[in-house]
Amino acid sequence: MAVLIFSIGLIGLAGLMIMATRSNHTAYLRTQATFLATNMADRMRANPVGVWNNAYNKTLPTTATQTCDQGTPCNPAQLATHDLQLWSAQLQTFLPNPSATIACTSAQTGYTPVGTQVGMRPPYGGTCAMSITWDERGIAGDAANSGDTSPQTFNWEFQP
Length: 160
Hints:
alpha+beta; four-stranded antiparallel β-sheet; 3 helices; 42% helix
């Protein structure tokens, strides 16, 4: 009888460990999505002219390629393409089956900068909406999702 009770306890403990491992992996993926979102927001803050000219308004993954280095410097639109290319590669590396969209609008700014005003701080009074979607495995014990993948989404509205 004691062996039976002990065995049931071990089975319960094994189930608990599986659930903890899946929860840990889910938290890891959500942390990666948050890190990747802030990384792209920082890239956008560093390129205000690209943001003003809507060069970051894209859906990813992207196949566009752009090389920017000391020998071949980029203009703001090319830098935005380069940033999106690198970000798309990071999304593919760190999240399972990712997709993302960025949409910026200057509707709330009340003005359009001209010439050198674009590069001044604060450069952008509008807002950007970022959405990152990836697949996660279902939670054990949930008969509807166990073993299946379910899409998860990280939405963020910010001012670059």
